[in-house]
Specification:
- The chain has 14 helices and twelve strands.
- It is an alpha/beta fold.
- The longest helix is centred in the N-terminal third of the chain and has 17 residues.
């Protein structure tokens, strides 16, 4: 045996060239937990990735993302959150309402969490304050649940002669009681009576619309709820089938054929979640990142649907719309 070969043999791994010994470094990983579904959220995930890229974090290049989807089934969220925590992710991003945030916070007190909050995260006990969240949670508060009264008023402008309006609520959603209280107060102010219909399953959604039609409810507000969002196309189709003017909380309902929607620019909120996640990867702590609140809310009217429903919308309402689909 030659002397060089002998030295390499007895030297073990120390004698191997550096290139041969180099091992690929594991990428930092973001756990992405959503109460929604991947098909109807695809465009929002794209904007989340765009926000990450603004900080220099590119999925698949220098950061990995593990996605978990509850498909509107809230009882799956704690299991999915625990699974991501066991994978030792660098940070968690939770979207699709407070249930996702609550599940993540219960699963870890140390991994940084960036959440999209539908309602007030301070009231929910998820952060200490908006300016100084404290703990391991921060994010963006959409204030979407707080807009239910405004949505009720806008819908009443479309059916001004109606004395009764329907409300579709998911009683399994944490903000349902607050949503109902706000809408009841708004209805009392403008002299309306509300009929409340509860639905937490597909069958209950079908039953609710059958009851609404049987009772000749003239118009409906679909309350904020990620479960409803995962059934967006179903809800829009049922409203059209029953010729029911319906108000929704997100832009995507109107672009999918819903009559009218009013709410925050959700795409931009997902982008901001990506920015915050990227900043955390760079070493920022959630406690030092204030909770962001939206400054713009988007009113979208689908005129094609209005014509199908035989509605004539006032010029005043059309003039304040941010987007009119013709």
């Amino acid at each position: 045996m030659k002397r060089r070969e002998f030295i390499m043999l007895i030297g073990g791994t120390a004698a191997w060239p550096r290139a041969a010994l180099a091992q690929p470094q594991a990428l930092p990983t973001i756990g992405f937990l959503s109460a929604r579904s991947p098909d109807e959220s695809a465009h929002l995930v794209d904007t989340f990735r765009r926000g990450l890229a603004e900080t220099g974090a590119v999925e698949g290049r220098n950061v990995a993302v593990e996605y978990r989807w509850a498909l509107g089934e809230y009882d799956r969220l704690p299991v999915l959150a625990a699974e991501l925590v066991r994978r030792s992710v660098t940070a968690l991003v939770t979207v699709g309402g407070e249930n996702s945030s609550i599940a993540a916070k219960a699963a870890t007190a140390t991994i940084p969490i960036v959440s999209l909050f539908t309602d007030d995260p301070v009231e929910r006990g998820l952060v200490a304050s908006l300016n100084r969240p404290g703990g391991n949670v921060t994010g963006i508060s959409l204030l979407n649940g707080a807009l239910e009264a405004k949505r009720l008023g806008l819908l009443h402008e479309i059916v001004p002669k109606a004395a009764t309006l329907g409300v579709l609520l998911n009683p399994s959603y944490p903000g349902a009681a607050t949503q109902l209280r706000d809408m009841q107060e708004a209805a009392h102010t403008i002299g309306l009576q509300l009929h409340v219909f509860n639905a937490s399953t597909d069958i209950e959604i079908d039953t609710a619309f059958e009851t609404i039609a049987r009772n000749s409810i003239p118009a409906l507000v679909v309350a904020v709820d990620p479960f409803f969002t995962t059934r967006r196309d179903k809800l829009v189709a049922l409203a059209l089938r029953h010729s029911l003017p319906t108000m929704y909380s997100l832009h995507d309902y109107a672009t999918s054929g819903g009559l009218i929607s009013y709410g925050p620019d959700l795409s931009d909120m997902y982008r901001l979640a990506g920015v915050y996640a990227g900043q955390i990867l760079k070493g920022m702590k959630p406690a030092d990142l204030p909770v962001i609140q939206p400054t713009k809310f988007v009113l979208v009217i689908n005129l094609k649907t209005a014509k199908l429903l035989g509605l004539t919308l006032s010029s005043g309402l059309l003039s304040i719309a941010d987007e009119v689909i013709e």
